[in-house]
């Protein structure tokens, strides 16, 4: 028995409605929105019925309508980050500083191969720094200071030749400070106020990060 024509027309209309849920980047950002408490309504324009997120406030896209910036610094947001952020493969700037974001840094952020700046400072983020962030070979700015991070500074970071600024001060990191690669030029005060951090590693000697967790 053939389907009624109204049912066929309804199904066709669904395929024609532009929706962010057909856009993986929009899906990822809307998942972030749902994980955050937005007291000042800065995410009010994040409308999931739009064809892509490029018209949303605080989002910048390139000429191909791919998301390149998320600018939500100092926005009175609370909540947690989501693994879906790792799907923003063209993202260059992730700016979420000076909020009250809790929870951990998703390991999936290591998928953001075009990321230049990761600014999560002045939040309430806990857990360890994911070694997967060492995959960010375009990264220039890594600012994670003023959180509640624990564990060692991942040695994977020494292979990020583009890295110019690292600030992990005022956390609860432990172990030693890398001294090779980009860390040769990072000032020691960018590591201060980590009571369990034992100072620069001594190359050629056994690491004493083994009891650091």
UniProtKB/TrEMBL annotation:
Residues 71-168 form the Disease resistance R13L4/SHOC-2-like LRR domain. Keywords: Leucine-rich repeat, Repeat, Signal. Pfam families: LRR_14 (PF23598), LRRNT_2 (PF08263). SUPFAM superfamilies: L domain-like. It comes from the Eukaryota. Transmembrane segments: none annotated. PANTHER family: DNA DAMAGE-REPAIR/TOLERATION PROTEIN DRT100 (PTHR48060), L DOMAIN-LIKE PROTEIN (PTHR48060:SF21). This is Leucine-rich repeat protein 1-like.
């Amino acid at each position: 028995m053939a389907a009624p024509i109204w049912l066929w027309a309804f199904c066709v209309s669904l395929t024609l409605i532009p929706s962010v849920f057909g856009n993986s980047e929009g899906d990822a950002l809307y998942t972030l929105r749902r994980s955050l408490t937005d007291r000042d309504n800065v995410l009010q324009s994040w409308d999931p019925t739009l064809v892509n997120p490029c018209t949303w406030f605080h989002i910048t896209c390139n000429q191909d309508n791919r998301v390149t910036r998320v600018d939500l610094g100092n926005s009175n947001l609370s909540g947690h980050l989501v693994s879906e952020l790792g799907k923003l493969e063209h993202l260059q700037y992730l700016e979420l500083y000076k909020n009250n974001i809790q929870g951990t840094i998703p390991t999936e952020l290591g998928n953001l191969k075009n990321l230049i700046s990761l600014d999560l400072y002045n939040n309430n983020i806990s857990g360890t720094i994911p070694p997967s962030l060492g995959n960010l070979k375009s990264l220039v700015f890594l600012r994670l200071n003023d959180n509640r991070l624990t564990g060692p500074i991942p040695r994977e970071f020494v292979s990020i030749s583009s890295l110019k600024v690292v600030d992990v001060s005022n956390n609860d990191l432990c172990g030693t400070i890398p001294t090779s690669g980009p860390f040769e030029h990072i000032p020691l005060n960018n590591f201060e106020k980590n009571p369990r951090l034992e100072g620069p590693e001594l190359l050629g000697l056994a690491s004493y990060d083994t009891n650091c967790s």
